[in-house]
């Protein structure tokens, strides 16, 4: 996953949530979520990233940059290749 939008969509779908569900849980407007997921949005504000990451229970660094974070209570989801390997 190369973009913030791809990672956001993946994390949202992992929870089987609609964009409306994520909007309600995060307080981020649905139009903003849609624009981020469709890469029609500049870099999201730090406050937006925090709200989305908190609602999705993921690390903000993973959402923004795809960084794998192993410390703390939350951990980033596995990388795409790792998911394929684990599903075999």
What can be said about this structure in brief?
The protein has 6 helices and no strands. The chain is mostly helical and 88 residues long.
Task: Walk me through the topology.
Blueprint: H1 4-14, H2 19-26, H3 30-37, H4 46-56, H5 60-65, H6 80-86
The radius of gyration is 12 Å
How many strand segments? Answer: 0
Average residue pLDDT: 84
How much helical structure, as a percent, in the residues? 55-70%
Structural class: mainly alpha
The end-to-end span amounts to 20 Å
Poorly predicted regions are none
CATH superfamily caption: lambda repressor-like DNA-binding domains
If you had to describe this structure to a student in words, what would you say it looks like?
Pfam families: HTH_3. With 88 residues, the chain is mainly α. It has one domain: 434 Repressor (Amino-terminal Domain), CATH 1.10.260.40. 58% of the residues lie in helices and 0% in strands. α1 (4-14) packs across α3 (30-37). The protein is globular and about 25 Å long. The chain starts with a helix and ends with a helix.
Keywords:
Cro/C1-type_HTH, mainly alpha, 88 residues, 434 Repressor (Amino-terminal Domain), HTH cro/C1-type domain-containing protein, Lambda_DNA-bd_dom_sf
